[in-house]
Write a structure and sequence with these properties.
The protein is an alpha+beta fold. Helix content is 13%, strand content 29%. It has four helices and 15 strands. Helix 1 (5-16) packs antiparallel against helix 4 (234-243). The longest helix has 12 residues, at 5-16.
C-alpha cells in the first residue's frame, strides 16, 4: 500500500514553504564527471552492507513479492539512515541483488537499494518514495539511478523532518532521468536530508526506481560565506507532483509520520 498523492502533496508543500538555498545539482552520465564528484567521498555500493543484511535476489522487476526483514535497510550504512516514508525504522527500502536480465542494471557490483511498499512487498510498477537522513551533515551527496526503471524527482535538504523533527530547507532540486547520476556539492557541510520520488512517464506510467553508489561526505562551515536564501515555491512543488507518481489518487491513504 502506498501513501496517497494528497499525503505526499501536503508533506512536500510543507517542505517547500521553508526558505530554499540556491544550488544546482548535476545530472550526468559522464563517468569522468562522476569520478571527480566522488573524489574523497564515501561510496556505498550496497554490495556488502553489514548488520546482518542479506539482499533479496531478483531476476525481474516484479511487484508484490514479500521482502524479508534482513533485506531491508534502516541504519546499517554508517552515516546515513533510510526509509520509504511511513514510520521511520519500520518502512524501509531493500537491498536487491540483480540477476538474469537485470544483472547489468547495477552500476557497480550486483546489488542496489530499492523501494518497498508499506505492506513490505517489492514495488517496481507503482511509484514510491525513498528518504535519507544524515545525522552529521555533509557538503556532497549523490547517487546513480537504475537505467531500466523510471525517472525521479530529487530534493536535497538540510535535514529530514521525519527523522530529526527539525525544519526542512530545500538546498537543491533535480529531475533525474533513468540511468543518470545526480549529485549536489556545496561549499559547506549543509546537506542532511534527501527525498527521492518516482515520476510518471508521458503515458502516465511509473516504473519505480532503485539507486546505486550512494556517495556522500565532505565537511566545512555549516553556512558558506555569501549564502543568500531564496523563497521556496509551493506552487513549483505542487506542479511537480502532478507528474510525480506517488500513487493512484484513488488508492487508500495511510497515515505517515513525515
Amino acid at each position: 500500500m502506498q501513501r496517497s498523492l494528497s499525503t505526499l502533496a501536503l508533506a512536500l508543500a510543507a517542505m517547500a514553504a521553508t526558505p530554499a538555498a540556491h544550488a544546482d545539482p548535476i545530472t550526468t552520465t559522464d563517468l569522468a564527471v562522476v569520478q571527480a564528484f566522488q573524489q574523497g567521498l564515501t561510496v556505498e555500493t550496497f554490495d556488502n552492507v553489514g548488520g546482518g543484511r542479506a539482499p533479496m535476489a531478483i531476476n525481474s522487476h516484479t511487484s508484490g513479492v514479500p521482502v524479508g526483514d534482513t533485506a531491508q535497510v534502516f541504519n546499517q550504512v554508517a552515516g546515513v539512515q533510510f526509509s520509504v516514508g511511513g514510520t521511520v525504522g519500520v518502512n524501509r527500502p531493500a537491498l536487491y541483488q540483480l540477476g538474469g536480465g537485470l544483472a547489468g542494471d547495477a552500476h557497480s557490483g550486483d546489488t542496489v537499494l530499492g523501494t518497498v511498499d508499506f505492506d513490505g512487498n517489492t514495488n517496481f510498477d507503482r511509484s514510491g518514495l525513498m528518504e535519507a537522513f544524515l545525522p552529521t551533515k555533509v557538503s556532497s551527496l549523490g547517487f546513480w539511478l537504475n537505467p531500466a526503471l523510471g525517472d525521479v524527482l530529487v530534493y536535497f535538504l538540510n535535514t529530514n523532518f521525519a527523522f530529526s523533527r527539525e525544519e526542512e530547507v530545500i538546498l537543491g532540486t533535480a529531475r533525474v532521468k533513468a540511468g543518470e547520476f545526480v549529485g549536489l556539492q556545496l561549499d559547506g557541510a549543509q546537506i542532511g536530508g534527501l527525498k527521492i520520488g518516482a515520476m510518471r512517464d508521458s503515458n502516465g506510467v511509473s516504473k519505480g526506481f532503485t539507486i546505486d553508489d550512494f556517495s556522500f561526505g565532505g565537511s566545512g562551515t555549516s553556512e558558506p560565506p555569501g549564502h543568500v536564501p531564496e523563497p521556496g515555491s509551493v506552487a513549483l512543488v505542487l506542479a511537480a507532483l502532478l507528474a510525480l507518481g506517488a500513487s493512484r489518487s484513488s488508492s487508500p491513504t495511510r497515515k505517515a509520520t513525515d
